[in-house]
Amino acid sequence: MTVKTMAEFMAEGKQPEILFWVGSAGSYDDRAKKITRAFVKLLNSANIEFAVLGAEESCTGDAAKRAGNEFLFQMQAVTNIEILNAYEIKKIVTACPHSFNTLKNEYPSLGGNYEVLHHTQYLQQLIKEGRLKVTNNSFKGKRITFHDPCYLGRANEVYEAPRELLKELGVNLVEMKRHRRTALCCGAGGAQMFKESEKGDKDVNVLRTEDALQTNPDVIATGCPYCNTMMTDGVKFKEKEADIKVLDIAELLANNQEL
Amino acid sequence: MNYLPNILFAIALVIGIGYFVKNVRKLIRNIKLGKDVDVSNNKSQRLKNMINIALGQSKMVRRPVAGFLHVIVYVGFIIINIEVLEIIIDGLFGTHRIFSGIGNLYGVLIGSFEILAVLVLISVIVFWIRRNVIKLKRFWNSEMTSWPKNDANYILYFEMVLMSLFLIMNATDVSFQAMGSGNIISQHIAPLFSKIPEHTLHLIERSAWWLHILGILVFLNYLYFSKHLHILLAFPNTYYASVKPKGQLDNLESVTKEVMLMMDPNADPFAAPEEAETNEDPEKFGASDVTDLNWVQLLSAYTCTECGRCTSSCPANLTGKKLSPRKIMMDTRDRLEEVGKNIDANKGEFKDDGKQLLGDYITKEELWACTTCNACVEECPVSISPLSIIMDMRRYLVMEESAAPMELNNMMTNIENNGAPWPYNQMDRLNWKDE
């Protein structure tokens, strides 16, 4: 697929419209890579001039910061900011709410000031501007529940964009009892993704999956690669993977257009 | 001897208010043990938050039943206390219902106080039932035993008694009943006392009056020892709480200094530190005790009224982990009180007691169970952030003690070496393009 790096744009003496921040999960995790590819397909179908940093991108440092390692976080941040500023990046779009939050909120005081959007916000903009079109309706009427990622929802109060996109697809959006600001965490945030959980009587992702299953959905939609992993594991734990898919909003849009 | 009641009243008032002021001073002293933090920005947003959240109770009503009842008690508490002004003037000058001269308005005022008193009484009884009969789960977590549990009930009993005394005082006040205005509730209680001789009735009225005002003074002084401090501290706490997006953690400035130095190609790695810095202790990263936290976090600890909305929405707690955001706040306050008492006992100076917040109150197991999901922060009706304390303590564990769980150390080593939390080569970052 067509993906150009910033270095390539630079060589051509051009500036892309947006920088797509892929993030570590989107770059390496097998499941998340599919989300990355789906989003790129949408960008290409809308003829967006976008760039990625490729090998020049490095972890934002979110997980390190939330694990308590402020040193490592700031080292990562300063390194990334140096590259972003060198390329004179103005607008960043990312499919990972953790990158989104860190780039948007925690980089400015270290010298990194950019307009940062979550991919659902950006896709919504593209549709509004008529640059991205929803022409098929393969998800029309499907029961879909949306799991709010903590770092998109509560952390940054983005609740509408993903839901607006689902509406564009004409799906039957069925909300979980805990949704929007009361949404339950999937269990991955705060560096939990990378460690065993403490002793308890249940895993957080199982509890959250139970929330989702109560809506009797065809698809559990989300907007975060980590939430995606946790919910996918939860659905498997409940042995429902044959009936219920866990998909990113970008995947729903791309699948709908058969991209 | 005619002035004896006036004198006794004045003494009670001076002792009651004096002791309260003394404890408020102690409270402020303890809060100031925290580190300084700049809260001078966004004044209008802060004011708006205080008006909406504390005065307007906007977050309370998100849980409609408790919220509605709380608004009644809150409004009742504020409005009925106008009556206290009259009681104080009457008590000091030996007058009786000094404001009754203002005519019809007096009846309207007392009448609305009486209605509110009944509503407050009913609300408080419902609160008691929710806590003790229905046993809502969040009131029965493991940190809600002994004092916290009793404290909550004592407050309810206090309010029941105060409201009852107010109504009895009015019902047994013969001249007030004779006025026939403003006794909208008490006129229905008065018949209960109809067989009692006037002399005894007067005695009951005086007793209710005295117990009512003494009760208020005792309650005022109970605040400092109780979770009920929120009725005062909710206001400063909602004002000083963070105005940033919830997802934004502060960037430690002490770390920035060192990182910038490390990244500066012109920095001399062998340079001696500047003169001014040599006399200072190197700054501690993160928090292991209450004095490492900032004063807003300490103010929050005193503000917490242990309602447990945070804990009831915490994913870790809901899945049986030890972490309870409410306990983080309660522990912080308990430890701060302990430090304060230590200072009092040692003539104004803290003597090391071999204890600290980390380990003796809050365990690593609790700290590592947090997903930083902000549910607790979102829920808190008075804008407390238990998460900020958890984060500061994690920072201490990692940066001062290198005591992160092994898997997290692996994750951090990976970020350091490969720029990703997993052990993949950074050069492979774009491989997804061709897969």
Key attributes of the depicted protein:
heterodimer; A: 259 residues; alpha/beta; Rossmann fold; 5-stranded parallel β-sheet; 4-stranded parallel β-sheet; 11 helices; 9 strands; 43% helix; globular; B: 435 residues; mainly alpha; Fumarate Reductase Iron-sulfur Protein, Chain B, domain 2; 21 helices; 0% strand; HdrC_iron-sulfur_subunit (chain A); metal-binding (chain A)
Structure write-up:
The complex is a heterodimer of chains A (259) and B (435). Chain A is α/β, with parallel strands linked by helices. Chain A has two domains: 4-126, Rossmann fold; 134-256, 3-Layer(aba) Sandwich (Rossmann fold), CATH 3.40.50. Chain A contains eleven helices and nine strands. Chain A has helices at residues 6-11, 23-28, 30-45, 62-67, 70-86, 97-106, 119-128, 160-168, 204-213, 225-237, 249-256, and strands spanning 4-5, 18-21, 50-52, 91-94, 115-118, 143-146, 172-173, 219-222, 245-248. In chain A, the strands form two sheets. Chain A has a five-stranded parallel β-sheet. In chain A, α7 crosses α8 and α9 (204-213) packs across α10. Chain A is globular. The mean pLDDT of chain A is 97. By secondary structure, chain B is an all-alpha fold. Chain B folds into two domains: 4-31 and 63-226; 253-267 and 279-427, Fumarate Reductase Iron-sulfur Protein, Chain B, domain 2. In chain B, α2 runs antiparallel to α10 and α16 crosses α20 (386-400). Chain B is elongated, with a radius of gyration of 28 Å. Chain B starts with a helix and ends in a 17-residue tail after the last helix. The model of chain B has no long low-confidence stretch (mean pLDDT 93).
